[in-house]
Amino acid sequence: MNVTTTRGWDEFMEGIWKQNPTFVMILGMCPTLAVTVSAVNALSMGISTALVLIASCGLVSMMRNVTPKEVRIAVYIVIIATFVTAVDYAIQAISLALYDALGAFIQLIVVNCIILGRAEAHAAKNPPIPAMVNAAGMGAGFTIGLLSLGVVREILGAGTLFGVSLFGASFQPWVIMVLPPGGFFVLGSWLLFFAWLERRKQRKLAETAENV
């Protein structure tokens, strides 16, 4: 694996683990809590955000040397809004039911701090390919975060996964899981889990350092 491939892999993995938007940076909480009542909604929102993120970061990167610093934020928002509009119409064409389920949160991708933050912090300072690879990692990390919540909430709240019944008619759903408090509860549980993993990792590193 050469240096370029290694760097590209590191750029991609940054958003999945080290700077996961949901579980590390705690960004994009509105869609994270609002649309994750089912795995389908969570996956659709994650993919939509990832597509906008990749496309907008690529274009921002290509325009980085010609965009005046004084209007860069306005330019970023126009670029993001253009791709959000395209995704919005695509979802309407594919499934009106899905579009209604996601509601206004598709349009609100325009002001998602994950996308604007990547445009300002990374895409505006790097060539198109690294910028898009980094954006793809962030998009994948965000999708994983949404799906992690959506799967748990759908299984416990409806007894299904991607609409397929798992437990039969005798299952008693946890109604709270499809309500806002359920979103906070599942998110907090995942955050505790990842905090435990990180603390365990640090403890092992400390023990290894002591034994050397």
Supply the key terms:
two-stranded antiparallel ribbon; 212 residues; electron transport; translocase; 70% helix; mainly alpha
Outline of the structure:
The chain is mostly helical. It contains eight helices and two strands, in the order H-H-H-H-H-H-H-E-E-H.
Report on this model:
It is a single chain. This protein is mainly α and 212 residues long. It has one domain. 70% of the residues lie in helices and 2% in strands. The chain has eight helices and two strands; from the N terminus they run H-H-H-H-H-H-H-E-E-H. Strands 1-2 form a two-stranded antiparallel sheet. Helix 3 packs antiparallel against helix 4, helix 4 packs across helix 5 and helix 7 packs across helix 8. It is flat and about 60 Å long. The mean pLDDT is 89.
Describe the secondary-structure layout.
Elements: H1 3-18, H2 29-34, H3 39-62, H4 72-94, H5 96-102, H6 113-121, H7 128-158, E1 160-161, E2 164-165, H8 180-211
Antiparallel strand pairs: 1-2
Helix pairs in contact: 1-7, 3-4, 3-6, 3-7, 4-5, 4-6, 7-8
Q: End-to-end distance, in Å?
A: 29 Å
H/I helix tally: 8
Which structural class do you get from the secondary structure elements?
mainly alpha
What does the overall shape look like? flat
Give the beta-strand count: 2
How would you characterize the largest beta sheet?
2 strands, antiparallel
In what order do the strands lie side by side in the largest sheet? 1-2
Q: Can you tell me the number of structural domains?
A: 1
User: Kindly state the mean pLDDT as a whole number?
Assistant: 89
The helix fraction, in percent, is: 55-70%
Contiguous uncertain segments of 5+ residues: none
Gyration radius, rounded: 19 Å
* Percent of residues in β-strands: under 5%
